[in-house]
């Protein structure tokens, strides 16, 4: 166990990538087996069995979550089309309580690997910032995106502003396992050579939109 925070945020990024890739790899094989067995049981005539249906839906949701985490936090990111980004968003936490609006994104040529991963990382952060559900909207182009969240109890994490100003705040954010989406979003933005800023919110609305843009 490390006794001190990683001095180099690049090391933290590589560690996160490796851990995510290994965990997703280990879980996906077992999950695929479970999903296949559930499909066989349904095909055998038990399709009206409610517990079996719920189990199948849960396995499918978990598979979507693993695919999202692998694409957002894993190593060797790949280019993403807007359609692929939309499909991966189905794996967000509490996806059934979220409305994902990507209609404002202009990405005819798709997202380059690092920019796509940064966008996914901020979608995960946005989902964590909507504990009771709500709306997440992305607008702009792959190298200049606006991220907006709306909903009851919507709020960016308390350490968000500090992470904008201070790299030690990003390091400190790793101390909260349930809040890993915050430091990882900033690290993957850095990896994509993108800056993060908070914009002024419209009168009477909160929280402010986030801008994610290339240097």
Present the secondary structure layout.
Elements (H helix, E strand, L loop, with lengths): L8 H38 L3 H24 L8 H8 L8 E8 L7 H16 L5 E8 L2 E7 L9 H6 L1 H7 L7 H11 L2 E5 L11 E5 L1
Parallel strand pairs: 1-2
Antiparallel strand pairs: 2-3, 3-5, 4-5
What this model shows, in words?
With 215 residues, this protein is α+β, with helices and mostly antiparallel strands. The protein is 51% helix and 15% strand. The chain has a 5-stranded mixed sheet, with helices on one face. Strand 1 (98-105), helix 4 and strand 2 form a beta-alpha-beta unit. The chain is globular, with a radius of gyration of 18 Å. Residues 1-6 have low confidence and may be disordered.
Summarize the structure.
The protein has 215 residues and is α+β, with helices and mostly antiparallel strands.
Radius of gyration (Å)? 18 Å
Q: Provide mean pLDDT, rounded.
A: 85
Largest sheet: 5 strands, mixed
Which structural class do you get from the secondary structure elements? Answer: alpha+beta
Q: How many beta-strand runs?
A: 5
Order of SSEs, N→C?
HHHEHEEHHHEE
Overall 3D form: globular
Termini gap: 35 Å
How are the strands of the largest sheet arranged?
1-2-3-5-4
